[in-house]
Design brief:
Elements (H helix, E strand, L loop, with lengths): L13 H15 L7 E5 L5 H13 L2 E5 L14 H12 L2 H4 L6 H20 L3
């Protein structure tokens, strides 16, 4: 389930947007069960340095999931399926299937509502 979400314009690189997600996590309070954060290979750099500074105080560790250079063709990366599965769940909601929203905060709210709906259906299946 999603702990924090940030929707930004396409002009901002995802690796820079990841810092916004971490900032939201820090502002939301403590997550004592959060110990490991997985990130794609494209997120290396500032994100690694940012989390290294916070590692001692929060106990969060970052693990970069990279594709090895010696593998040819399509290979499923570990933990990447979790992200793709979540995108699939969110894509089932009409308001999230296309970019209908004019403001990013509306998109963030719709993502939160979709995740609340998913959690409710898990707690009390129909």
């Amino acid at each position: 389930m999603i702990l924090a979400v940030v929707v930004h314009s396409a002009a901002l690189q995802d690796r820079d947007g990841a810092l916004g997600v971490l900032a939201k996590l820090l502002a939301a309070g403590s997550f004592p069960r959060l110990t490991l954060i997985w990130a794609d290979g494209g997120y290396a750099g500032r994100l690694v340095r940012f989390l290294d500074r916070l590692k001692r105080s929060l106990g969060w560790a970052l693990q970069i999931v990279k594709r090895t250079d010696d593998v040819k063709g399509f290979v499923v990366l570990p933990k990447r399926w979790i992200v793709e599965r979540t995108f699939g769940w969110l894509g089932r909601y009409r308001r999230l299937s296309k970019d209908y929203e004019e403001q990013t905060r509306n998109s963030e709210t719709m993502i939160r509502l979709a995740m609340i709906n998913l959690m409710l259906h898990r707690l009390e299946p129909e």
